[in-house]
Amino acid sequence: MKNLQQTVFLVLALGLCGLCVYQWHAQTVQRQEIQLLEKTVYEKAAAIQGYTNSLATMDRQIATMDAALSQLKADGRTNAELVTARTRENFLLHTQIAGYTNVIEQYKAAVATLDTRLKEANEAIQKQNESVKDLVAQREDLVRKFNESVKDRNDVVGKYNDLVSQVEKFQAAATNRPSGR
Fold first, then answer.
1. Do 65 and 141 reside in the same domain of the chain?
2. How far is CA 127 from CA 26, 79, 121, 124, in A?
3. pTM of the complete model
4. Which range marks the domain in which residue 159 is found?
5. How far apart are CA 35 and CA 161, in angstroms?
C-alpha cells in the first residue's frame, strides 16, 4: 500500500511539473505574441502620424492650387472682357470705314493693329486656358491621391481596430484562463 501511495504521489508530482512546464510554455508564446502585437501597433501608429502629416501638406497644396485656379479664372474673365471690348472696338472701326471713305487707309491700319492685338489676346487666352486645364488636371490628380491616401488611412484604422479587438480578446482569454492551481 505504501508503494502505491508513493507511486501515485510521484505520478501526481510529475503531472503537476508537466502542467507547470506546459503553462510556462503557453505564457511564453503569449508574451511573444503580445510583444509582436505591441510592435505592430507602434508601427501603425507611426504610419498614421506620417499619413496625418502628409494630409496636412496636401491640404496646404490644395489650398494654394485653389487660390491659383481662382486667380487664373479671374484673369480669364478679364481677358474675355478685353476680347469683348476689342470686338466692339473692331465693329465700330468697320462702321466708320463704311461712313468715311476718304480715310480708308487710316482705318485699315487701325484694323490691322487691332487684329494683331486680338490675335495676341486670343493666344494669351489660349495659353491661359491651357494653364487652367493643366491646373485642373493637377488638382484632380491631387484630389485622387488625397482620396487614395484617405482610403489607405481608413484601411489602416480598420486593421488597427481589428488588432485592438484581437488584443482585447487575448487579454480577456488570459484573465479568464484558470491559473492552474
1. yes
2. 72, 11, 10, 5
3. 0.32
4. 53-168
5. 17
Instruction: Tell me the pLDDT tens digit for each residue of 120-149.
Output: 889 888 998 999 899 899 889 989 998 999
Give dist(CA 127, CA 151) in Å, integer.
Answer: 36
Which residues, in sequence order, are CB contacts of 73 under 8 Å at separation 6+?
132
HSE-CB for 145 with a 13 A CA cutoff: 14
User: Within 13 Å and on the Cβ side, how many CA atoms surround 16?
Assistant: 7
Q: Is 163 exposed, middle or buried (0-12, 13-18, 19+ CB in 10 A)?
A: middle
Predicted confidence (pLDDT) per residue in 42-75, tens digit: 999 999 999 999 988 999 999 999 999 999 999 9
Domain membership of residue 44 (yes or no) is no
**In this structure, are 14 and 89 located in the same domain?**
no
180: left (phi over 0), alpha (psi -120 to 50) or beta: left
For residue 111, give Cα distances in angstroms to 79, 87, 94: 19, 11, 8
Q: Report which of 149, 161, 147 is spatially closest to residue 45, judged by C-alpha positions.
A: 161
Residue 151 inside a domain? The answer is: yes
Cα distance between residue 47 and residue 42, in whole Å = 9
Report residue 20 as a C-alpha cell: 507547470
